[in-house]
Amino acid sequence: MPRYVTVAAAQLGPVQREHSRADVVERLIHLLRDAHSLGAELVVFPELALTTFFPRWYMTDQAEIDLWFEREMPGPETKPLFDEAARLCVGFVLGYAELTEDGHHYNSAVLVDRDGRIAHRYRKVHLPGHDEHEPWRAFQHLEKRYFEPGPEGFTVTRAFGGIVGMLICNDRRWPESYRSLGLQGVELVCIGYNTPVHNPPAPDHDRLGDFHNHLVMQSGAYQNGTWVVGVAKAGDEEGVPMIGGSCIIAPTGEKIGRAHV
Description:
alpha/beta, six-stranded mixed sheet, 26% strand, globular
């Protein structure tokens, strides 16, 4: 018997350093309402949606680093988003930096059900970049410096009438990510990402960024017979152009919806 759920890919514009959590949450609420007006039941937001992509910077002060992290979810600043989702009866996926009670730092995403309660949490497994204490590497992603790999691996949950899994950014580039979810019967994979246009170690690949982004998600969908929704920030964030290219991909590997910014 067919099951239907309407999913929206809520591509977000750049989040600058001076933007407060309240500023960003207000933007997310507007996107949530827009998606609801179009009939969406689940809205997917990008990776690290609440802040600028801070792993682009080299920082040594742990107190400064921790300011980018959420100590609770929802917290006082994010609760309005959860409340509005419950009022509209719309679920969402939200990427953010998580600081746990026992001091662990993760690049995380939560799947929130229609009643505003967290149904599932995923902590990013594939962390790119460097963890060496070398300031000259600051132009590259420093996720290994600021985050720990997710200890639970790739997991799924039953929600929205099906089996849902989540990936974050670099996870989407590797076939084992999708396969791990596929072996658990996944039917919908929600992916948030932040990807710069320019790749300093291989600048000749800059022209292929958008192509490679879609290629890996389309192949993951086709090879595992699952829907994939990939959602990004787009535009110039702190002087770094981001590729955008958010899309919805069918189990055939075909893109059925795409943001062209």
